[in-house]
Amino acid sequence: MSDTLDLAQIDAGLFQTLMEKVSEFGSTGDGGVDRPVLTDAHKAARDWFISELTARGYTVVIDDIGNLFGRIDLAGPDAPLVMLGSHLDSQPKGGRFDGAYGVMAALAAVESWRASAAAQGIAPKCNYVVADWMNEEGARFQPSLLGSSVWAGLVERDWALERRDRDGKSVGEELVRTGFNGTGVMPKPDLYLEIHIEGDSKMEQAGARIAPYARHWGAYKVRIEVTGEQNHTGPTPMEERKDAVLGAAYIIAKVRELAETAADTLYTSVARVDISPNSPNIVPGKAILFAELRSPEQAMLDWSLGELRKALPGLAAQAQVSAEIAAIDERPAGRFDPRLVKLTEQAADAFGYPRIELDTVGGHDAVAVNAILPAIVIAVPSVNGVIHRNDEYTSPEDLAAGCDVFVDIVRRVDQAGGDLDKAVGANA
After folding, report:
1. According to the record, how does the cofactor bind (predicted)?
2. Would you say 292 is a known binding-site residue?
3. Which CATH architecture group holds 218-331?
4. How does pLDDT run across 225-242, given as a tens digit for each residue?
5. 3-state secondary structure 259-312
């Protein structure tokens, strides 16, 4: 039998084949993909992925919020269960690596460890699940991380099924239409691993190839409704206009001002505004703002939300409109499991890959999963820090390096029988 401390590496050919194929679904022809959740392109990608899982002997499970799982038992029914994954949905006209890299790497990592163990005569000690979470992006249905949050018990399923897109279609209706309204149940695993592109330039600047995320920033996703009075943009006197978009503009400026007041500890945005009736010849009667407040510290999040609440009446009054907070979706700040951070560092060091420890400002499904079990996100560099657009890019070499670390973490955890303390200690 071979030494179980030998490094396990990714099957580069398998990973490349999977990555190239998944990038075809919703391809925009300019390097990106347009594959929002539960669209036809997203369905096609998921249908293809099911065929890949089935062909390799995985049992496919689709749960009642549309999460897709592929399970394979390599060590018997009572063995520890390790879950790896990410998401196949994309932003509108987004990039081909965000999410999909994590799902393809997950399948390739399990398959690579499976083959490596067989070649070395090593008996696996864990079973595995590859996860494709429903609606990570939150582009079509809000909030983001919807499928993983329902699975983790953080959000009520019935509430999630009623989330609607701009056209009034609900999550529940679209799950039925696309055939992903499942009834399966995926039990809680012992740990969860996710790999992702960084979407920032910190790794590039530091010359790092691997970055375990130690902390995840929290967020308030705030929906603000501004109500004015619909009227004609021509004859209506300026002093009589109750322009909802003007009120929205004052609020948007305030949201940005909050970030400038708390530089580097608060990120804010208003990246979507729904205007009604949205005609160039009508003073808008309604504007709905989707604001975000992000920080690594709960105290800063609470301060920023409080400041926004206090400012709303005065800002609305400037435009002779009213404004109210209609909904708040909260994502608490927190830390990923330090043992998984350490395992990532050990694996990176074993390969000689330069590393850096980072926070993640963006949300990932691992953030929701982390609420109930040990989890982590591992990052690889993004060229120029680009994410959520067509020129999002990570070099093949860095993708492969991340996959190598990913599969070797699987090996270390597997041979420790799913015991994270033992896995870390064995390689300390």
Report:
1. Binds 2 Zn(2+) ions per subunit.
2. no
3. 2-Layer Sandwich (3.30)
4. 999 999 999 999 999 999
5. HHHCCCCCEEEEEEEEEECCCCCEECCEEEEEEEEEECCHHHHHHHHHHHHHHH
Residue where the block lists tokens 């109210």: 324
Residue 208 β-bridge partners: none
Strands 68-72, 375-380: pairing is: unpaired
- 87 annotated to bind ligand: yes
Domain 12-217+334-426 has CATH 3.40.630.10: yes
Q: What is the CA radius of gyration of the chain?
A: 23
Number of other residues whose CB lies within 10 A of the CB of residue 118: 12
Beta strands in 133-285 (DSSP E): 191-197, 211-216, 218-227, 231-232, 267-276, 282-283
Q: Are 248 and 315 in contact (CB under 8 A)?
A: no
The Cα-based distances of 32 to 35, 44, 204, 389 in angstroms read 10, 16, 21, 7
Q: What are phi and psi of 64, to 5 degrees?
A: -80, 10
Q: Range(s) for CATH 3.30.70.360 in the chain?
A: 218-331
388 is in an annotated binding site: yes
Q: Any known ligand binding at 364?
A: no
The tens digit of pLDDT for each residue in 262-277 reads 888 999 999 999 999 9
What residue type is assigned to position 318 of the chain? Answer: Q
DSSP letter assigned to residue 124: P
CATH 3.40.630.10 residue window(s) in the chain = 12-217+334-426
232 annotated as a binding-site residue: no
180-237 per-position pLDDT tens digit: 999 999 999 999 999 999 999 999 999 999 999 999 999 999 999 999 999 999 999 9
